Amino acid sequence: MTDLELLKSAGLYKKDNQTGKEGVTLAGIMLFGKDEVIASVNPYCRTDALYRVDDIDRYDDRDFVETNLLDMYDRLLDFISKYTMDRFALDENARRVSPRNIFAREIVLNMIMHRDITDGHTSRIMIYKDKLICENPNSFRTMGILTVKNYTPFAKNPTLAKFFREIGYADELGSGFVKITKNSYLYSGKPPVFEDKEMFRVTIPLLRSETLDEKDLINLANFGINDTLNDTLNDTLKLLKNNPKLKQKEIAEQLKISEITVKRNIKELKDRGYIERIGARKNGYWKVNL
Q1: Rounded mean pLDDT of the chain?
Q2: Structurally, what CATH architecture does the domain formed by 41-219 represent?
Q3: Domain limits of the chain?
Q4: What SS3 string covers the chain?
Q5: pLDDT value at position 22?
Q6: What are phi and psi of 136, to 5 degrees?
Q7: Facing residues of 62 across strands?
Q8: Tens of pLDDT along 61-96?
């Protein structure tokens, strides 16, 4: 593709039906624009990264990021990596993973993809000795604490979200909530706190006790199979987690429900980010995002 073809295919270059003029959209400028162009078109595209351990009133280190969203993504991840410990952990398949890298990627993507880009408040990442806080200008929907019981995925900037999914940075809508929670447990043994207010805030504990409470281990083992889903959705998710290559007919037989219900459940689980299809229809499998 040429640069123009790429922009058009990603929905970043459009024609205004009223004026007939063509050009790069605001999302395109925020993704690929030069710093001076972004500052003139959207001066609110900025994130303040602060490290506060000795001087908690001001900061010990700071990176005030005013650049395009792709470079912003890299700089914010580098800042978090610089001032947080990369702990060893094993996932449910006994594979070595970095919980820090996973939840850092998800909170940075959330800031970039779902911020209210017309709000004058600055997005902030604040790293303290015991916690990491991420704040983002927000068009809130819940006005309060978000949990797996009341959380509903919503793309505030669908063009940006689609772009980051297409280049492989982001997964399906809603999967970030699950990944941040799961990897917070892996990292510290404690859950994150999501606050949906004028500023969307995520707080992730950074200090881990020498031993985890039994309830924390149970929460980690069972996370993702939750009561936000009805019984057949939960049962379908459990079957796919145990055998990702199950066919719809096999699921219907095991759960004693119709194939139409299974098809509807698969679509809902996919739309909500719990599963995603890997490979072709016949030879592929379902990846469970838990």
Answers
A1: 84
A2: 2-Layer Sandwich (3.30)
A3: 3-27+33-38, 41-219, 226-288
A4: CCHHHHHHHCCCEEECCCCCCEEECHHHHHHHCCHHHHHHHCCCCCEEEEECCCCCCCCCEEEEECCCHHHHHHHHHHHHHHHCCCCCEECCCCCEECHHHHHHHHHHHHHHHHCCCCCCCCEEEEECCCEEEEEEECCCCCCEEECCCCCCCCCCCHHHHHHHHHCCCCCCCCHHHHHHHHHHHHHHCCCCEEEECCEEEEEEECCCCCCCCHHHHHHHHHCCCCCCCCHHHHHHHHHHHHCCCCCHHHHHHHHCCCHHHHHHHHHHHHHCCCEEEECCCCCCEEEECC
A5: 92
A6: -140, 135
A7: 50
A8: 999 999 999 999 999 999 999 999 998 887 766 778
CA-to-CA dists, residue 77 to 107, 202, 243, angstroms = 10, 16, 34
pTM over 0.85: no
Q: Please, which pLDDT band fits residue 225 given cuts at 50, 70 and 90?
A: very low
Q: Output the CATH code of domain 226-288.
A: 1.10.10.10
